[in-house]
Every structure is written in structure tokens, then in C-alpha cells.
Amino acid sequence: MRKQIAVLTNPTSGKGKGSRITDQVTPRLRDAGYDVTELVGRDGDEALDLARKAVADDLETLVVVGGDGMVHLAVQALAGSDTRLGLVPAGTGNDVARNLDLPRKDPAAATDVIIGGRERQIDLARIGHRYYVTVLAAGFDAIVNERANEMSWPKGQMRYNLATLAELRTFTPIPYVLEVDGVQHRFDAMMVAVSNGPSFGGGMQITKGALMDDGLLDVIAIDPMSKLDLIRTFPKLRTGSHIGHPKVHHFSGRTVTVAAPGIVAYADGERIAALPLTVEVVPGALRVLVP
Member of which family (predicted)? Predict the structure, then answer.
């Protein structure tokens, strides 16, 4: 009897990149003995409905072809279920794939992980009824995201570069109230990130060394600094070399509440809601196939 598997695709991701990669993935899965159902959502709501139906049908594995946004969507259905996530990256940032050591530029190799990889259970972070996999951004980075999303030009990374420069002109430190496992901290900071994994934003190692299966959230807060220092520090996030800087503070816990005026938080690159927000870790909530 052939094994059942479904492939969920966003046909508009990466200017059609998702569909092109799916055309490579499905024959490879069929050749490996799978009975493949292709699920194509015309928009986010339909894609989520398709993912929920796959879980309701007790499908063993749901393969997502897409980026962090598509994974974020699918996780809303997969969290706490027995259906496993298989991931073939087709996005821009691909931080979920990066954090799980999945091939990010080789669809065939990523498909082979689904065919012959092992199952791993990882934690998820939860805000109310919404889950995320990587990082909640709640500071300067979130403000840049807000501005970039309002811009129609240019496209790609350059839009975020211009949004960063625009926000730097007027940005001032933000007053935060942070509560970690019931202990409250009040301070001004440039940004606060609540992480379930080490990277976000296409490889920025904001919480380098964070584990996705330790039952804890990692929180990074960056003290106020001059605009010049902020420009110098931001590139260090790519390597995680900001860790240990005297103006970078680390907390960890199971439940984190973060409050600040005028900040809309982003998680997995997706707009979540305005602060205050409470995040809790859900240990072992997601089954995922990894090398």
C-alpha cells in the first residue's frame, strides 16, 4: 500500500517559485512510493483550511513548499497534532529551514529529507491561539517591518534597507515592561526579541545558541545606543557576535509578557498584533522531518 502524503503550496510565493519547486518535489515523492495529494491555496485562508483538513484526515505528513510565512500558516493547523511537517524551502528568509539544518537551496535534497529523514519534536511559541516557530520581533526591527510593508517600491531586501535608513532618522529608545516567569523588568531599549529559535530576518542570529526543544523561550534586549552604534551593531546580528556585548541582555523562561507603547510585533516575519503580548512555550508541539 502506497504511503499517503500531501504537498501544500503557495503558488504566488517567490513570483511562482513555489509552484516550480512543487513540480520537482511531487515526482520525486511519487518515485519514492508516496501517493501524493497536491494542495494549492489561492490565498492564506484557503491554504489554512487545506492544512486543517489534512490534519483532520490524520495524514502522516504535510509537506510545505514555501517560506517562513507559509510554515507559520501551516503550523496553526499542525500544532499539537500527530501530522508531521515536511519542509521544502521556497522563500526569501527561510529561517525555519535554517534553524532545522534543512537544505535551503536544493529542493531535491530537501525532498530526500522528507523521504529518508528522521522525526524530531520541537517546541512552539504561542500567543493566545496563535503559534510561531522562530522569533517575535518587538522593537526597532518591528518598526522597520511596519514601514517596509507600507512601501510599494522597491522590492526585496532593498525595501527593508531603505525602511531601516528612514526609521533611523527619528528612532528613539522604547520604554519596555518585560515579565519573564513572573519577574518584572522595566527599562528602555532599542529592541526586544522573544525567541523559540536562534535566527530570524533571513539569518540574523538574534539568539545564537537558542534551542528549539529545551522547553524555554530566549529573550534578547538591546540597551539604548547611538544611531552610529546601532548601525555598527546590526550587522553583528548576522553572526551572533552581539552576544556578550555589555548592552545586550539575555533572559529565558517559559512565559514572557512584553509591553511597549506604539509597537506592533512580528513573528516568523508575519504581523501579529500590537503590544502588550504574552508568549508561552509549548514543549514538543510540532513534529518535523529533519536530516
Answer: Belongs to the diacylglycerol/lipid kinase family.
Q: CATH for 135-283?
A: 2.60.200.40
For every residue of the chain, DSSP letters joined together read -PEEEEEEE-TTGGGGHHHHHHHHHHHHHHHTTEEEEEEE-SSHHHHHHHHHHHHHTT-SEEEEEE-HHHHHHHHHHHTTSSPEEEEEE-SSS-HHHHHTT--SS-HHHHHHHHHH-EEEEEEEEEETTEEESSEEE-SHHHHHHHHHHH--SS-THHHHHHHHHHHHTT---EEEEEEETTEEEEEEESEEEEESSS-BTTTB-TTTT--TTSS-EEEEEE----HHHHHHHGGGGGTTTTTT-TTEEEEEESEEEEE-TT-EEEETTEEEEESPEEEEEEEEEEEEEE-
Q: What share of the chain has pLDDT > 70, as a percent?
A: 89
Superfamily of domain 3-116: Probable inorganic polyphosphate/atp-NAD kinase; domain 1 (3.40.50.10330)
Amino acid identity of 272? Answer: I
pLDDT band at 156; cut points 50, 70, 90 = low
